[in-house]
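Mods, move this if it's the wrong board.
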Amino acid sequence: MDRKSPFYLHKQAPGPFDAPLSRPIYFPGSMAAQPDPNDPWSGISTGWMVVSYLLGGLLTGMGVGWLIDKAVGTSKVFLAIGMLAGAAGGIYLIYLHFGKEHEDQER
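Not the wrong board. C-alpha cells:
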C-alpha cells in the first residue's frame, strides 16, 4: 500500500496504555490516603466524597424504588424502601472507603 494512502498504518511506539498492568487491579486495603496536616484544605475532598456517596446512594435507591412502584402499580412503597436501601448502601460505601483498616496496619 502506498504511504500517501489514508489507510496506510505505520508502526507507532507503544503508548502508556499498551504496557501490561504493573499493579494489581484489586487492592483489599483501605483506599483512603492520610490528609496532609499542613494543608488546611486537605479535608475538603473527603467531605465532598462522603456527601456524594450519601446523595448518590439515596438518589439511586429512590430511582430504583420509583421504577418498581411504577411497574408494580403501588404508591410510594418501594420508593421508601429504595431510599432506605440506598442510604444504607451509601453508608456501606463510606465504610469501605474510609473505615476499613489495611491488613498491615492491624499488626
